[in-house]
Amino acid sequence: MASNATLQLDGPRARITGVLDRDAVVALWPQLKALPDSVSQLDLGAVTRVDSAGLALLAELAARARNNGRALVLNGTPAGFNELGAAYRLAPSLDFNAPTAAS
Predict the structure, then answer these.
(1) Are 3 and 23 contacting, i.e. CB atoms less than 8 angstroms apart?
(2) What CATH number corresponds to the domain at position 37?
(3) Which alpha helices (H) appear in 1-103, and where do they start and end?
(4) pTM, whole model, 2 decimals?
């Protein structure tokens, strides 16, 4: 199935629209992995839904930014984002090293 997701760059902001699912990850990855270091915000306000592949993509982008000494701010909370983040025990920064619920 083809993805309806798009990516638009506007200065320090990258805006993703549509459904951020496995198909979108495959379609958008070449553009997203080449984001310039000047991009400090991901606008998810027009993302209607995210699945586990989409969340993994966002976590990877956040980790790459952290590894380069910068933060990537996420704006917007698509359907499925909070539930999946909690299920994978991610911090709000999408860091996999967040404390677990058992701690």
Answers:
(1) yes
(2) 3.30.750.24
(3) 22-33, 52-67, 81-87
(4) 0.88
